[in-house]
Amino acid sequence: MNNLNEFLGGRILDLKTLNPEIVGQLLELGSTIVPATFEKQQQLFCSRCLMRINNNNGSYCRSCLNMGKINTTDQLLISSTRLNFGFQKRPMTWNGTLTQSQQKVSKELIEAFYNQIDHLIWAVTGAGKTEMTFPLLSEIISSGKRVAFCSPRVDVCIELFPRISDAFPKTTIGLFHGKSEQPYMATQIVIATTHQLVRFEKAFDVLIVDEVDSYPLAGNIMLERAIDKSVKEIGNTYYLSATPPKELLEKVTAGQLGISKLYQRFHGHPLPEPKCHLLYKATNFLKINPRVKFTIKKLLNDNQRFMLFFPNIPQMKDFEKKLQQRFPKLKLISVSSKDPDRLKKVQLFRKNQVQAILTTTILERGVTFKNVTVIVIDADSQEFSKTSLIQIAGRAGRAADTYDDEVHFYYQNYNIQIKMACAEIKYLNWCAKNV
Ligand SMILES: [Zn+2]
């Protein structure tokens, strides 16, 4: 007997890759076979990723090619979603406590689950979004339903997996992303990158999408369609963000989406407001601009660890070289999206084995360090959107005992992005006190 769990649960499978015996068993369990393409308004679409197939190259779908080539004449098997996860009365062993405002949001999430209404959670960076979803997850699991917790970012998924596994030790949980070696299983909780959702159809009772405004999800039509199609018709989706995109806020205004707002960090202290520094000369003036150098020297004297954010990799590398020349004793690392050792390096910083981490927007979110000064170099670069700057500033002050970590923005032009980011942080702090 084959382990059918490797196939079940609303998976979209390429029929030609399956052996006939398995196909027979899957069909008996209620799976269906569909053509790999469908026509709409005289155009051809891929049944897996729902993207249009370009006529010039119309023999296969290019959009989801990296998940295995699907030819237009192929057939797909959509596996049955009838899964039995058994019954758990109290699936959650997490015994942390939620603050009053977290509890309020947590209740709203459970209400949305029972009313099957899609819901947006706008919670400031460091509000404890993940923990707030735990009572919801518990409710979903004890109802015997299936949930996917997704993020566009692999790092976020990898960090989520042990936390959720610890909180729900008796529940089957799978972690799936492009680089994972764990084979697919029809688990009750699925933690995955949003890309993985392309492989599912009406598979989940509940879908939670974290960091909904972040790359590569924001503005990606294929991923937006994947989110829609992977949830069952009778089911609901939660969107989590500290910086929600305006499309979702418009849906809230139109009454299509519920909303919970959380302006307060879990420790009750305000968000650190960035200190803005206008530079009269470029960052690389005299190798390292004296004003920046002065700040770094002070951090070294205080033995304070820090993060330096750069708009791009070449600038980061150049600065790294100069910094190392000027301060040879400083232990530092640099990480970017192109770095295969990224996760290991971040771990070194987390364990206090290096004092400084130089990075790009890759670490703007999803990472939590205690006691860290955050510095943005060339904050006026186009790579730093308002959202990026808010997220980066949100890396500071995340621990209760160092809630007032400093944030510094260095720039030559005080542009609209910097202005809006600072204004929004101020506004959120005002709301935390007054709303
Ligand atoms: Zn496709």
Considering the chains and any ligands shown, give keywords for the structure.
single chain, 435 residues, alpha/beta, Rossmann fold, 7-stranded parallel β-sheet, 6-stranded parallel β-sheet, 18 strands, globular, binds zinc ion, nucleotide-binding
By DSSP (H or I, 4+ residues per run), the number of helices equals: 11
At the fourth level of CATH, the homologous superfamily of the largest domain is: P-loop containing nucleotide triphosphate hydrolases
What is the C-level CATH assignment of the largest domain?
Answer: Alpha Beta
- How confident overall, as mean pLDDT? 94
Largest sheet report? 7 strands, parallel
Strand content: 15-25%
Total domain units: 3
Structural class: alpha/beta
Tell me what the CATH architecture of the largest domain is.
3-Layer(aba) Sandwich
Distinct bound molecules: zinc ion
Order of helices and strands: EHEEEEHEHEHEEEHEHEEHEHEHEEHEH
Give the % helix. Answer: 25-40%
Number of strands: 18
Low-confidence stretches: none
Q: Describe the strand arrangement of the main beta sheet, using strand numbers.
A: 8-9-7-10-11-6-12
Give me the CATH fold name of the largest domain.
Rossmann fold
Radius of gyration: 24 Å
Query: How far apart, in Å, are the first and last alpha carbons?
Result: 59 Å
